[in-house]
Design goal:
The protein is of the alpha/beta class. Helix content is 45%, strand content 13%. It has helices at residues 5-31, 57-65, 78-81, 83-89, 94-98, 113-118, 131-139, 152-165, 169-186, 215-223, 240-246, 259-262, 271-274, 294-305, 311-326, and strands at 33-36, 42-45, 52-54, 72-74, 105-106, 110-111, 123-127, 144-147, 196-200, 226-227, 250-254, 278-281. The chain has a 4-stranded parallel beta sheet, sandwiched between helices. This is Iron ABC transporter substrate-binding protein.
C-alpha cells in the first residue's frame, strides 16, 4: 500500500507537535510550581499539590473557597467540633457530613506528625507560629506553606500563593479582586461621628484586646470606626481602669457571651455596658478575620456602629459575598 506525500507530511507535522508538547510538559514538570509563603520562603512543587493536609480551620475554609476540597486528605479535628464551621462546610462536602476526612491530631488539639506523615501529603498548610511542626515536617522532606494573615496584603498574597500550589491561581485572583473591590467601596468616608470599638478576645477574656497594627485593628478601621486601644501591641492585657479611660462606644466579643461582660462588676459603670452596647460575633464562621472574610467582619462592625448601614443591607452584602467567595448560591439560607 502506497503512502501519499500528504499523509507523510501530516504524520511528520503531528510528530513534531507531539514532541513539542512533551518538551513543554517536561519543562513545566522540571520547573514545577512555586510560591512565596509568609516566611519569604519559596515553596516549590514538581506539580500542583494533590494530597494536602491543613492544620488550622481558617485555612481549610480557604481551600473550600478555592474549590480545591478534593485535595484535602487531612484537616484539624476542630472543623468537626466547631458547630458553625461544621454546619457550613457540610453544605459543600459530604465528607464533612460523614466526618471521613482524617484528623491527624492528638485529642483534637496538638498535631500528630506521625499521623500527618502517614497521610502521604505533598503539601502541608499551616500558620507560621506552628514552628515545631513546621521544622519536623520539613526535616522529613514534606513541603510546608505557611501563613501569617497579619494584614490585608498578607491575606491576599498568601491566598494567591496557596492557589498557585493547588493549581487554583485564577480562582484565588478572582476572590482577591472581589474582596479588593468591596474594600475600596468601604473606603468612602461616612458622614457620621466615628465610634470607638473595644474588641475582647475569645473564651471570656474580656480584659485581653487587640492593639494598633493588629489584624483586628485593620478590620475595625476598615469599618469606619476606630480601635479604642491605642497601644502598639498585638494582644495587650489591660485592667478595667484602662478600659474606663479609653471609654469605648461599644464592645465586641469573639466566641464569648455578652454575660461575660455584663457579669463583671468592675465594668458595670462603663457607659458601653450601661447602654447595652456589647455585641457578639455569632456565629463566628462568616466573619473569620484570618481569611478574606475580614471584609465581612468589618461590615458587621459597620452595621453596629452606623445605623445608616442597615441590617437589610448587611444581609444582602453577606449573601452576595458568600455566593462570590464559595462560587455557589444559597449557602446562607
Amino acid at each position: 500500500m502506497k503512502i501519499s506525500i500528504y499523509t507523510l507530511l501530516l504524520s511528520l507535522v503531528l510528530l513534531v507537535c507531539l514532541q513539542g508538547c512533551q518538551n513543554q510538559q517536561s519543562k513545566a514538570n522540571k520547573n514545577g510550581v512555586k510560591a512565596l509563603d509568609s516566611r519569604g520562603k519559596e515553596i516549590t512543587l514538581a506539580q500542583p499539590a494533590k494530597r494536602v493536609v491543613v492544620l488550622y480551620p481558617s485555612l481549610v475554609d480557604e481551600v473550600y473557597m478555592l474549590q480545591a476540597s478534593d485535595r484535602l486528605v487531612g484537616i484539624p479535628e476542630q472543623v468537626y467540633q466547631m458547630e458553625d464551621t461544621y454546619a457550613f462546610l457540610s453544605k459543600l462536602d459530604p465528607r464533612i457530613v460523614q466526618k471521613s476526612i482524617a484528623t491527624p491530631t492528638f485529642g483534637g488539639q496538638a498535631n500528630n506528625v506521625e499521623s500527618i506523615v502517614s497521610l502521604n501529603p505533598d503539601l502541608v498548610l499551616t500558620f507560621n507560629t506552628d514552628q515545631d511542626n513546621i521544622a519536623q515536617l520539613e526535616n522529613l522532606g514534606i513541603p510546608v506553606f505557611t501563613f501569617s494573615s497579619k494584614d490585608e496584603t498578607s491575606i491576599f498574597n498568601e491566598l494567591i500563593g496557596m492557589g498557585t500550589l493547588l493549581d487554583k491561581k485564577a480562582r484565588a485572583e478572582e476572590i482577591v479582586k472581589f474582596v479588593r473591590d468591596e474594600v475600596e467601596k468601604m473606603a468612602t468616608p461616612l458622614d457620621q461621628p466615628q465610634k470607638k470599638v473595644y474588641y475582647a478576645w475569645s473564651k471570656g477574656r474580656v480584659l485581653s484586646t487587640s492593639g494598633k497594627g493588629s489584624l483586628i485593628d485593620m478590620a475595625i478601621r476598615l469599618s469606619g470606626a476606630a480601635n479604642a486601644c491605642p497601644l502598639e501591641m498585638e494582644a495587650p492585657n489591660v485592667g478595667a481602669e484602662t478600659i474606663y479611660k479609653w471609654n469605648p462606644d461599644l464592645m465586641i466579643l469573639w466566641n464569648s457571651k455578652s454575660s461575660d461582660v455584663y457579669n463583671l462588676k468592675e465594668l458595670a459603670a462603663l457607659p458601653a455596658v450601661k447602654n447595652k452596647q456589647v455585641f457578639v460575633m455569632s456565629p463566628s464562621f462568616p466573619f473569620d478575620p484570618h481569611t478574606v472574610k475580614f471584609m465581612l467582619f468589618a461590615k458587621q462592625v459597620r452595621h453596629w456602629c452606623f445605623p445608616s448601614y442597615t441590617k437589610e443591607q448587611l444581609d444582602q452584602d453577606m449573601t452576595m459575598a458568600f455566593d462570590k467567595l464559595y462560587g455557589k448560591a444559597g449557602l446562607l439560607q
